[in-house]
Amino acid sequence: MSSLNIVLIPLLPLAVFLLLGLFGRKYLSKFAGVIATFSVAVAAFLSLSTAYSYFFITGKTEGVYQKLEVMKFTWLQFAPNISIDMGMLIDPISVMMLVVVTFVSLMVHVFSLGYMKGEARYATYYAYLGLFTFSMLGLVLSTNIFQIYMFWELVGVSSFLLIGYYFEKPSAVAASKKAFIVTRFADLGFLIGILILGFNAETLDFGTLIQRLTDPTSTYLQGSVASSFLGISSLTWGLVMVFLGGAGKSAMFPFHIWLPDAMEGPTPVSALIHAATMVVAGVYLVARLFPVFSFDVAALDVVTYVGAFSAILAAVIACTQTDIKRVLAYSTMSQIGYMMFSLGVSRYGGEHGLGYMASMFHLFTHAFFKSLLFLGAGAVIHMVHSNEMSDMGGLRKSMPITHITFLIACLAIAGVPPFAGFFSKEEILLAAFHSNKLIYVLALFTSGLTAFYMFRLYFSIFWSKETQHTTDAHHDEHDHGEGTLSMKIPLIILGICAISSGFVPIASWITSDGLPLETHIDMAFSVAPVALGLGGILLALFLYKKANPRPDTIATSMGGFYRAAHRKFYMDELYLFITKKIIIKLVGRPAAWIDKNIVDGFMNFIAAVTALFSELIKGLQSGKLQQYAAYYFAGVLCFVLLFIYLWH
Amino acid sequence: MSNLTILILIPLITALTVLFAKTTAQIRWISLIGSVIQLAVAALLMKAYYAERAAGNTAQMLFEYRCNWFTPLNIEYYVGIDGISLVMIMMTAFVVVAGILISWKVETLTKEFFFLLLMLSMGAYGFFISLDLFTLFFFLEVAVIPKFLLIGIWGSGKKEYSAMKLALMLMGGSALVMVGILATYFNSDTGNGAHTFDLLKIAAQQIPYNAQLFIFPLLFVGFGVFTALFPFHTWVPDGHSSAPTAGSMFLAGISMKLGGYGCLRVATYLMPQAAEHYSGIIVLLATIAIVYGAFATLMQKDLKYINAYSSVSHCGFILLGIGMMTKTALIGAVMQMVSHGVMTALFFGAIGMIYERTHTREVEKLGGLLKTIPFLATIYIISGLCSLGLPGLSGFVSEMTIFMGAWQRPDAYHRIATILSCASIVVTAVYILRAAGKAMMGPITNEHYLHLEDATWNEKIASVVLTLGILAIGIAPFWLINLIEPDTQLIMNGIARGITGN
Strand, coil or helix: what is A309? Predict the structure, then answer.
């Protein structure tokens, strides 16, 4: 594991961004995809080799995985003890993320070769992908809490650019703006959290910060627990604020509203950014600071309840959506909710750290099956030119590969053994069971819902009514069939991962304290979740396998609740109300009015008074000699009278 | 002849040569060559400065030169630079080159236009190198007067009103500065009862506390008018929106920084105790400017008004940095001056270039420019991203430095001010993305836009030069910090000494 290799991993995508961003449009538009894919492939290879050497050769010292820092230098010195240091942190979670990010990015790059073919801004697309991959890699490798914030923002802007890729569509522009602004608002919390934590620990460096804030004897920790605001210690404030930023990026309630709209971006982008990598940044952030979180039960409780609530809320909404990408978006939100509360119920060290391990495990498996689902959805959309379920149906014959891989991914997310999702979800449920029964019940119920809405999606796309697409396809010159080979290969590879990634021994690599954790699947424990999952699948089978009126009847009988869920519980309306009505009408407009009429009015008033005064006295300088003579004599007379008065 | 005087002479000679030029092409090229030479000189100066510092020269000001101008009143021509002035000079040189390139197509009264631009820049250079209060004031005035003419003659919209408003308000500010400088002069003491305008000597001898309390507001408000101190900012929106493109660039990029520099170098440096005394009010006014400026921007419909109001908000950060009275915040204030100077020049440049093509700046009427004029639209978006504080671009670095410095004040008052200012960056994102989303992205609103011509070579060079400036600060802020850190330390020493009272 040489440091050069590690440095190259983020720099390769950056080089692609610069190359294609500057010259892509004019000179390289044909080769853009190949260049970008090749460099990401190299980065993925380097990541895998890094992971191999870290986990098997160099990472362990006395049985504990160490944190290594590569290439660290001071970038910005704020004050003698506070600086932003740029560097690369190599530890189990960052290495795992390196692999996930570069691998999924590679799959998306390959898929896009076919999917985005013929786009006018093909090179720009790959340039943006490069920027995103670079920023995401920078984020996971950050050694400093401010460094992570910087890459955090860069990830946000690349997401903005990619969601708004079809910038001529007003809906895409609106979605990209919404995503940026909502996450930006959450990032404000992150920034304030950084300020609080950074000043409490008098450092911004992750290692030092964690060390200072987890040592019970340190004055830093005592200080941050002792100082409080509104009865809550400043440590809790700092952590909750940081979590706020994470909740924004990871689309946790109430910041989730941007994620469904973000589906306006090209579908491979959704697979990369809004399924596998960027949206888990919040989970990663909490995991990165986990030792500190584990010292603060109040902050962990916030993480737990926000995560669990988001998981179930999103699952309910997902059952009612008809746009396939939106279903997947809500499902992503729900799964990230799992990862969040899994971290929340966890504690530090040994058996108590099961939740931490489970969360990272789920992050790992989820990346594969969720990006597979998105790419599969992309292939479907590519073929039927619609996102709506009602336009699909019966596609299993015309798209065999997509069908099989999509089914694998659905089984994986539904938690059916032996697919990947089963293992990771099992660990999460186990962790929740041992720590918080309420959360366990919620999670169990959500996993049933998950199976239901995923198979609702699956049956609606591939079974249900036999639409005319299969027959008309040959007459439609825009039709691409199932897509090119470059679109099928990533599906197959990810399908294999969705089956196999559950067998990766994450537990022996990634734990809260760096020591391997013994885990086992308890058959008795697995009965409930698997049964619920199968129940969900059967219900979906019953309702959606063939076109029938049952779903509509049920929807009608649920009445207001269904409508509310279908309208996403009116969160978008609330968002619009806050931005349009409150911020713009109640604050912006008065501010502009005051500025124009009162502040500027005052300046104009001064000017007007001056002008009026000069108007009044300008008659004195008329230029008429007789008048001046009269003033002169009047003046003389006044003086004469004055002197007489004084000397008489 | 000191080598700093060359910074004044080059623009002066260029301006005079322009007067004798025969053709429009000559005028343009002479101005461009002059400003490029100036940029090269500034770069050489920076190199020499580094060399001097590396050689261990710890004098506060380098390359000093002084000669008597009017002995009875001890008025001197006294120049010298430290790191802070150096970065301001560099920033000015960049903006001037870009401004001249962007004004390439000015057809009416070309000679006079370039002459005034160059004179304005000369005033700014002179201001930044002056160490004598009288000389400093002289150059401040030199930098004000051309603006009146630039807006009044080459402006657009209600230009007479705007020009008058700007000139009167800035003159009002200068009048306060003048009174403040005279009061400082009469409170100074060189030892034998004589007074001095020498900045360093005044700083060393300390003005009596009661006098400081009286003089500081005069100087701070006077300079504050230049840098859009609330509530004296109302010249900014009208002035900028009426000014010709290069005028806006110079106005926002350079002129507003004269005020910030003055607040720091003259008001705060000479009267540290009073600065500390009034710092609560400064923080209050700065926070109002930041937050209220940002919200007022939300309602603007004209690209230039958006940027002008956003400048009010961003310049508020400079004052906030000064008002926080911590070293980190002061460094941030200086960085914000440089960063905002380059960024806003690029922003106004982009708006001007777009306006020249579309003949409208109404956000609602524009649309889809990213498709038709991708280069210019990209430049607009880059400056927008810089304005909303994207890491890797200059705005992020300076704002974060200010926040970091501000957070060092642990009391509730400063904390609330800091959090409110932090919150303004969300509002900034809203208004920038609203404008960019409507005007640059979205469907093309006017068929005429389909046939627009993208940037010409001169416009491209200008944009690239400024973009590189933004990137240089944003990616490698350490060189900037290394330059200004020792000198902010000196100002902080003054403040600390003032507070402890010895």
Answer: helix
Q: Is A591 on the interface with B (CB under 8 A)?
A: yes
A79, A584, A607 member nearest B328 (Cβ): A79
DSSP state of A396: T
Q: Which token pair is A185?
A: 């608002």
pLDDT digits (tens, 9 = 90+) for B413-456: 999 999 999 999 998 998 999 889 888 888 888 778 777 888 78
**Chain A to chain B Cβ contacts (< 8 Å):** 131
| Token pair for A191 | 């920034």
Judged against a pLDDT cut of 60, whether residue B502 lies above it is answered with no
In 3D space, the residue among A415, A407, A416, A412 whose CA is nearest the CA of residue A462 turns out to be A407
Task: Give the per-residue pLDDT at B336.
Answer: 93
A168/B368 CB distance under 8 A: yes
Sign of CA dihedral A175, A178, A184, A190: negative
Quote the tokens at residue A477. Answer: 């010159």
Residue type, B148: F
pLDDT, tens digit, for every residue of B146-170?
Answer: 888 888 888 888 888 888 888 888 8
DSSP SS3 for A78: strand
Asked whether the beta carbons of residue A588 and residue B298 sit closer than 8 angstroms, the reply is: yes
pLDDT tops 70 at residue B500: no
- B426, A184: Cβ pair inside 8 Å? yes
B64-69 contacts: CB < 8 A, separation 24 or more? B64/B2, B64/B131, B65/B1, B65/B2, B65/B3, B65/B4, B65/B5, B66/B131, B66/B132, B69/B134, B69/B135
Whats the size of chain B, residue-wise? 502
DSSP symbol at B263 = I
C-alpha to C-alpha distance for A170 and A191, rounded to whole angstroms: 31
Task: Return the percent helix, strand and coil in chain A, to nearest 5.
Answer: 75, 5, 20
Chain B closest CA to A124's CA: distance in Å?
Answer: 12
Q: Is residue B2 over pLDDT 60?
A: no
Contacts of A602 in chain B (CB under 8 A): 231
CB-based contact A76 B374, cutoff 8 Å: no
Best residue in A157, A166, A178, A184 to probe B by mutation, most B CBs within 10 Å? Answer: A184
Residue type, A175: A
Locate the chain A residue with the closest alpha carbon to B293. A591
Q: How high is the ipTM of this complex?
A: 0.89
Within 8 A by CB and 6+ apart from B45, the residues are B3, B4, B7, B63, B81, B86, B89
| Minimal C-alpha gap between B442 and chain A (Å) | 4
For residue B162, give the chain A residue with the closest CA. Answer: A604
3-class DSSP assignment, residue B76: strand
B450 by Cβ neighbours in 10 Å (0-12 / 13-18 / 19+) ranks as: exposed
Side-chain-side CA neighbours of residue B428 (13 Å): 29
pLDDT of amino acid B402: 93
Rounded to a whole number, what is the distance in Å from the CA of B433 to chain A's nearest CA?
Answer: 6
Helix (H) or strand (E) holding A90, with range, is strand A82-90
Q: Average pLDDT by consecutive 10-residue portion of chain A (648 residues)?
A: 81 90 80 89 92 83 80 83 86 90 92 85 89 93 91 92 88 89 90 89 87 82 75 86 92 88 88 88 92 88 92 88 88 92 86 87 91 90 82 80 88 86 87 87 89 87 67 46 80 89 83 78 79 84 76 76 77 79 80 81 82 82 82 90 85
What gap in Å lies between CA A264 and CA A161, rounded to an integer? Answer: 11
Which residue in the set B299, B368, B390 is minimally distant from A157, CB to CB?
A: B390
Strand positions, DSSP E, A318-375: none
The confidence score (pLDDT) of residue B501 equals 52
B298/A184 touch (CB, cutoff 8 Å), yes or no? no
Measure A247 CA to nearest chain B CA, in Å: 16
Global pTM value: 0.90
